[in-house]
Amino acid sequence: MSRPVNHELNRRIWGLLAKGRRKAVVAREVGVAASWVATLNARVGGVYRPEDVTYDARYLSRDERYELARLLDVRPVLSHAEIARRMGRSPSTICRELARNRDPRTGRYVPEKAVTVAWQRQRRPKPSRLASHEQLRQEVQDRLSRGHSPEQIAGRLRVDFPDNASMQVSHETIYLSLYVYPRGALKRELQAHLRTGRVLRQPAGHRDEKRGRIVDAVSIHDRPDEVEGRLIPGHHEGDLIMGTVASNSAIGTLVERTTGFLTLCHLPHGHKADHVARAVVDAFTPLPAMFAKSLTWDRGTEMHRHATVTAATGIKVYFADPHSPWQRGSNENTNGLLRQYFPKGTDLSVHSRADLQHVQDLLNDRPRKRLGYRTPREEMVRLLQ
């Protein structure tokens, strides 16, 4: 015999998930199995109904449905007209509610079930905007294929089509089209290009990092105050993304804080301090002086030759505190994006300098919210001009 559905419990679970609570925490708080919370999360694709969404005023609210159920149990039995009068509704509204939402098997009016049935009826299948608008769907799909996030796509569409409302769409609509509404080919077609590859919408994770001791390291706390505001260009953040231990492979990543412009360092011979210093010097040498002022690096011993970098380029090297990745937020975020192209647990030495340039161009041509949906390359050119 199947277990009866507890709609109130399910709504509570969805409400907690919508507030960003972790599934395991929600399961403990409401006293259910974590697998059931995961099932409910998957049922809505990780996209939850906003709390401020309400029924149209012509429909009975949840409270009114409970009041209706109470009045139906009053003895002597009240007429529909009297119930309508007490509730401030028309008799026809009460008659339609009872005709539509009584339990067909028992004939009883169960308010919570009536709420669920009414809500499901209002959610009758409708074509999503991307399904019904061919040009807009192609535009979104093309940008997804270039690794742009739904929020970046929505923002950039407003920049590229400022006078064409039909070619603008919110990032939430894109997420709904990815995770909830479409079925079959359209859903697979859109999700195939989502850079995370996820089938559920979920918060990003974190990664642990190993830190080393650096001789004569200058602390991040000694950086000039101008670095913090991102208003003065030329201050960079750097780190390595690592391949498999067996391959001893890595790629250097440099991100300019003001523009978000990315430079990838090719390390075909390994990532010892000498190799990294040489690659960083090669990356900074072509830059104009205004774009080569400082570099904040992770606490990895691969930057042991930081004095060599400073001597060759004039750029000052600072080091973040141990276990403080947020101090290099731009670089950390970019490294996460790069894992789409250079997955963890793979041999990074197989990627040529041309491969790195291709990925570098993709990210530098990706619109950024904090830049008003301009791209890092556009912002770099604007500042140079």
Q: According to CATH, what is the class of the largest domain?
A: Alpha Beta
Q: How many distinct domains?
A: 4
Poorly predicted spans: 181-185, 203-212
Strand content is: 5-15%
Which superfamily, in CATH terms, is the homologous superfamily of the largest domain? Ribonuclease H-like superfamily/Ribonuclease H
Mean pLDDT: 82
Largest sheet, described in full?
A: 5 strands, mixed
Please provide the count of β strands: 5
Cα gyration radius (Å): 28 Å
Tally the helices: what do you get? 17
Distance between the termini: 73 Å
Using the alpha-carbon principal axes, give the shape.
elongated
CATH architecture of the largest domain: 2-Layer Sandwich
What fold name goes in the CATH topology slot of the largest domain?
Nucleotidyltransferase, domain 5
What order do the helices and strands follow? Answer: HHHHHHHHHHHHEEEHEHEHHH
Strand adjacency order, main sheet: 3-2-1-4-5
Topology summary:
Blueprint: H1 7-18, H2 23-30, H3 34-43, H4 62-72, H5 80-87, H6 91-101, H7 111-122, H8 129-132, H9 134-145, H10 150-160, H11 171-179, H12 185-191, E1 235-242, E2 250-256, E3 262-265, H13 273-284, E4 294-297, H14 306-313, E5 316-319, H15 329-338, H16 353-364, H17 376-384
Parallel strand pairs: 1-4, 4-5
Antiparallel strand pairs: 1-2, 2-3
